[in-house]
Design a protein that fits this description.
- The structure is a single chain.
- The protein is of the alpha/beta class and about 350 residues long.
- It has a single domain, classed as TIM Barrel.
- The chain has 13 helices and 14 strands.
- A 6-stranded parallel sheet has the order 2-7-8-11-12-13. A 4-stranded antiparallel sheet has the order 3-4-5-6, with no helix packed on it.
- A hairpin with a 6-residue loop joins strand 5 and strand 6.
- The longest helix is centred in the middle third of the chain and has 26 residues.
């Protein structure tokens, strides 16, 4: 089975020949990234580009300053493991800033579109996706700033919706051009909606303020023939019903350290949405090598039966031999029918 067919089969909630997967080494772990650069990693899904484009304002040995097309500036630091992204300057400090942005025309560079098209063609046998921030992610982490946008949602919901509407319109038009010109299979959104204690907004506020924009993106992307995945950390149990109902095809990362119990999510939502779990960073990086295979087996047992499951193997801060054992264990266990999933 080709990798792309493997993914499409599981998205249809059927069991393919093997559990589809994608693998990455966490940001900031330069030694592990170098060690795995020359290794052939199992990849059924491939990210082929992201929007909007950014430019480097400053490059140092420990950090970079990046500016997006909207004018927000982030500092990406590598002094800590996994990197650290800090909003230095939001794009919308006052209402007039949003008015100014709404008058501008944002276009993709032809170089970026060409680069994505080449990546899609190079990975024609794999399931390809582009990525951008979710409506909440763009508003809270780039355009407005996290604390200020949460305040907007409560104190000035009309302005919050205006920011969301602007972001969705621009991102959707950029993605539409890429989808139509390159034929990517999916769009992957990112933007953490919570922490281990729960969502950042109540279920009512999510439904009233955020869900309409998530729903609209899913509707348009589905109409264009692509799937839509969302990456959001946090204990999202209180709003999982709404995320599934909004139309997302895949949920990630479902971190057990944030009280997301994979087996419970599978039981309740497994027939409606594809689960894309990652390992718990805190658990995996402290795990003895002898327990890694059991850990992978438990994850597959919790969610892989019946399809609707993609494994996102993220290599975290761990010894090289443990990282190699992690990949080896998954390759050993991934073939259907799964021995670890006998029920």
């Amino acid at each position: 089975m080709k990798p792309v067919d493997r993914v499409l089969t599981t998205l249809n909630h059927e069991e393919p020949d093997m559990v589809p997967c994608l693998w990455a080494v966490a940001d900031g772990l330069k030694q592990l990234q170098e060690a795995f650069r020359a290794r052939e990693m199992p990849q059924d899904l491939v990210g082929v580009g992201s929007i909007p484009e950014t430019r480097v304002l400053e490059q140092g040995s420990e950090h970079r300053l990046l500016e997006s097309v909207f004018g927000d500036v982030h500092r990406v630091s590598y002094k800590v493991y996994y990197g650290y992204r800090e909003l230095v300057k939001p794009a919308v400090s006052k209402p007039e800033d949003l008015n100014r942005l709404e008058e501008l025309r944002f276009e993709l560079s032809r170089e970026n579109v060409k680069r994505i098209r080449v990546n899609v063609e190079k990975n024609s046998d794999r399931f390809t996706f582009i990525s951008h921030e979710s409506p909440f992610g763009l508003a809270a982490y780039s355009l407005r700033g996290f604390k200020q946008f949460l305040t907007d949602i409560v104190v000035n919901p009309g302005f919050a919706k205006k920011i969301l509407s602007f972001g969705v319109k621009v991102l959707m038009e950029m993605s539409r051009q890429i989808i139509e010109e390159t034929g990517v299979n999916a769009v992957w959104l990112s933007g953490d909606l919570g922490d281990r204690n729960g969502p950042f907004v109540s279920p009512n506020l999510y439904r009233e303020i955020l869900e309409p924009f998530d729903r609209e993106l899913c509707r348009i992307y589905h109409k264009l023939g692509t799937y839509v995945f969302i990456h959001s950390h946090g204990n999202l149990n209180l709003i999982l019903d709404r995320l599934v109902d909004a139309g997302f095809d895949g949920l990630n990362p479902l971190d057990e350290a944030e009280n997301m119990v994979l087996a419970s999510v599978k039981e309740k939502y497994g027939s409606k949405v594809t689960l894309i779990p990652q390992p718990s960073t805190y658990k995996l990086e402290k795990m003895p090598r002898s327990l890694i295979e059991k850990y992978v087996a438990n994850q597959l047992h919790a969610g892989a039966h019946g399809g609707g499951f993609i494994y996102y193997g993220v290599i975290v801060n761990m010894p090289l031999e443990n990282a190699e054992e992690y990949v080896k264990a998954f390759l050993k266990l991934r073939s259907y029918p799964l021995r670890c999933c006998r029920r």
